[in-house]
Amino acid sequence: MSWQRLILRVNLTTQNCHVEPLNMEWAQQYLGQRGLGSKYLLEEMNPAADALSAENKLIFATGPLTGTMASTGGRYSVITKGALTGAIACSNSGGKFGAELKLAGYDLLIIEGQSSRPVYLSIENEKVELCDASHLWGKTVWDTEVLLSAVDPQLKIASIGPAGENLCRFACVVNDRHRAAGRSGVGAVMGSKKLKAIAVRGTRGLHCNDNSHACNEIFQSINIRLTKRQGYRRNGTLAMMDITNSFGSLPTRNNQQVQFERASEINVEAMQTRNRNGHTNLVTNAACFACTIGCGRICKIDPAHFSIKDKTQYHGASGGLEYETAYALGAACGVADIDAATYAGFLCNEYGMDPISLGGTIAAAMEMYETGILSDTDTAGIKLEFGSAEALCEITELTAKGKGFGQQIAMGSKLLTKKYGCPELSMSVKGQEFAAYDGRSMQGMGLAYATSNRGACHLRADPYGHDFKSTGTGGKAEVVKTSQDEVAFIDSTGLCLFTGGSGWSISDYCELVNTVCEGVWNEQRVFETGERIWNLERQFNLQAGLSKKDDTLPGRILEEPAKSGVGRGLVNKLGEMLPEYYRLRGWDQDGRPLQETLKRLGL
Amino acid sequence: MKVCIKLLGELRQYLPECGKFNQCKLNIPTGSTLQKILSQLKVPDDQDFIVLLNGDLMQKQEYASIIPGSGDEIIIFSPIKGG
Ligand code: SF4
Question: Residue A463 class from Cβ within 10 Å (0-12 exposed, 13-18 middle, 19+ buried)?
Fold first, then answer.
């Protein structure tokens, strides 16, 4: 069956690696990836421990469909206590690394303790070794991949860049050059453990079920259902830019506005149209392991652009703007320069930073600069004005390298604004910066941000369709709660969430999981499993010291009406939705799961 | 009279031939309802979509009664998830 039934445990303090059996009872309750990784995390560590201490654990988790030929079946998640948030973190990535880890024979890789010197983990099926990484420390993700690939070009590599080494609070783990477990600072946790990289070669294969021929036929017949909608392949996620900008939910200049008057310079059309030098930003699309959707963008910066004209190493094509990156490094900072945003995005991949939190923090700093809270002395002369592509590129370089005012940006917007006495300027929840949706015209998204277990996030619920049809609060609590459970399940399978927007429904996920897992997985079990995972994550957060007071939104979203768009005049009415949400969750008025809820879910 | 039609995201493929990238000026008889205008576009019936008229969100039940004016902007998109 498609669990390998093995865990690889690596203790960095003792430098000991060993293999142990997967707890199959837990696998039946939490499936894999996000769910199972979170279960192990809560069972094995004290949630109140410091995220950057040896007590924190770092779990790389695959799902039962990771490594199979089910479309998008290459996902893995990094689960830990987040360095940015102090809450449970679970960051999901594609590329090829996750499938390789699974094919090396492991469902989960649990990393514990802290090494006294830089190391990297080498895995070749059953041969596992911690190796000296002093020659890699200080190197970028891209250089690390080149150096390790020189040993064996077949290796798949996940690593941190200088941002993770420097404990930048929003450092991420990058694999396959430009795929990242991006959010919540999982890369800083890896950096605190002095683990530079994990290099995997896996050839042990997978045993899907007793009849692998029939199994592949089932995958093929379900994969074909994804051809119905081609939007992600043609336009990438950047297609969302015109939608949110028209609707009035594109956070602009640190959420001071909800529409960006120059969005047409950083949208799909801008990416696909030749500029005056005859150059298009978009080169081609790209797909992760086994993916038949291919939403990824491979892009090229205009070689004449100021950001790279003297830096030939950036003249080639690499991972380009997704919608979230274009928002954070574009509209959020008021920057309408697609090449500058692409360059800042390249640096995020190369140095290992989450572009959403980077852009959100720069946007907060720009507002601080424009309102006089930050001076030229603070920024060492950088004119951090909204709209300045030069300032965006310069401050991104400094943050990536941990230099100058970049060291302050690396704290994230919550700590930065607190330090300068203006916490209201941090557009974040639980310390994590907003994604690319404003919670005033999209009430459900506001509730999703406020209640997300990993801090503000657009991928922890699916209120999109409901929000674009209604700006009221009616029905939002139900939509958010139900979709949070559904997403928690999909995040535990090894599949990509975008399959949901490309044609798959719950019955398709059930059919796929039933093909490779023991037990009967039906719709009821999907939602029950998702709800169990959600409540488990909530328990982690409560034990970490978070509470109802953290299920909130910045004052700007709750008190300052949106100035334009479909939601003009509206604030987010969280106070109306949250009690209903808690009730639907089976939690008390303070957001604590009731005993009967925990009992029902077997927690 | 003419109205401006914008088909966003994956709906762009249904843009009438006169259009460029994702928008076009569509000639319609004066007095046409929103419903009538939408039916001229080739968006399939089973496609879920959302309509903004001059930046305002239109509800499905209004399509048959709303009559856009000359130069009005009609934006049509289907909900996707971001990333
Ligand atoms: S849809 Fe996009 S993110 Fe998801 S697996 Fe495919 S290429 Fe990767």
Answer: buried
